[in-house]
Protein: Exodeoxyribonuclease III
Organism: Geothrix rubra
Amino acid sequence: MKLYSWNVNGFRSVLKKGFMDWLEAAEPDVLSLQEIRCEWEEADLGVRRQIESAYDVCWFPATSKKGYAGSATLSRKELGFTHAKGMGIEAYDAEGRMIVSTKGDLAFIAGYFPNASQGLVRLPFKRQFARDLAAFVGARHRAGQKVILTGDMNVAPEEIDLARPKDNVKNPGFTPEEREDFKLYLEAGLVDVLRDRNPDVAGLYTWWTARGGARERNVGWRIDLFLASRSLMDRVKDARIHADVLGSDHCPISLELA
Amino acid sequence: MKLYSWNVNGFRSVLKKGFMDWLEAAEPDVLSLQEIRCEWEEADLGVRRQIESAYDVCWFPATSKKGYAGSATLSRKELGFTHAKGMGIEAYDAEGRMIVSTKGDLAFIAGYFPNASQGLVRLPFKRQFARDLAAFVGARHRAGQKVILTGDMNVAPEEIDLARPKDNVKNPGFTPEEREDFKLYLEAGLVDVLRDRNPDVAGLYTWWTARGGARERNVGWRIDLFLASRSLMDRVKDARIHADVLGSDHCPISLELA
DNA sequence: CGTGATAAG
DNA sequence: CTTAACACG
């Protein structure tokens, strides 16, 4: 089973840049999209029909602000995933942040984690989100489920996960507070799969600022991740970053499970 | 002397579309620009230097709202025009509407007349503007000056001046009120030069809506005009509409004086 | 429909 | 630097 996550920075934008070609080539079984920034009905009708012919679509745009945030999860129809919008907490659900998709004892929890924003004005919101999400994951584990947590987490966990750690200790995505909160997911029993399999490999990034050719020079951040319950780790066949895929300031990431 | 007027719908935009090539080819002696929509300092430095090497530049952006309205008048340095920003009425001057340029007994009054706007919400403002401007022209005549009044007047004077008169009697630019107010300029002693020389020629337009290929089908309006004091009419050598010049939803117009 | 300001990232 | 909403025309 091939699981993918991609912050597309505007679904309508990425549609103009070959998203459908990528979708047909990558053939994900489950795909989480973040920053869709539109209603499903605002996307091209032909595209919608084509996607709906193969996938169960759970489209979860923000209701709080038009064109802002939002996430979606697509799963191949034959897999029979059940999709639920939100974690039941209005502050996050109004921004279309997380979708919980289940099949048997597997919970695929995916979406768009808050950005701490300029001046860290949203750091308190993001910290509460991390606490609530970690508790949510813990409850799933106690209920006997195995969890995949993925999406744009808007935090680089360690110094190795960004090109310029020293320059960014006070910046959104690499503050001590955000890194500390990231550990709550690990303490809830999840493993950062790609880093687990590549402990010392530097230069593995999933996001590059659009300013000044950062992507060409690979001055990036690894902020899009797959975390998996420890009990799932023996099923992991592959974890990859698809840095060659253009169309957004993020690139897709994937996890292949046996 | 070749006088030009052009609503450029964003000076920075038209710069990207060959404005400087046009300027060098047209070689205007005096040029009024409308809807400049930027500060002089926001335009490309090379462009500014090139223009300033040949022209006295009177740049008159709106102070009331960034990126809104504004006008400019350029005159060849060797002509020695004196430029004055505004008519001394704050409501118009804050929007960078009119520039008064004088040389000897000639007053070149040029700029961006108000748009009545959707729902005609600005019709009262536009009517007062017309009264004030007509009075301003009258005062110039009584002071012994000859007047050229030009710019985007945002009104089609007669049915012949737009492709769809019947459809637009309630729309901004062709209401009975705006057409009535236009006559104030004529009553102040000015002549609509192009119409005076081409009384029955239809299809002479200077603006086309960007929606639905109106320009290609020449479904337009003549709302950019040169009006001249009757005493100047014997000096008129030519009055033209340059509909082939692209780069804005308006095209340039010109008046050649002996 | 296009230009430009703005919010957000 | 880029996406999308918005104001204005």
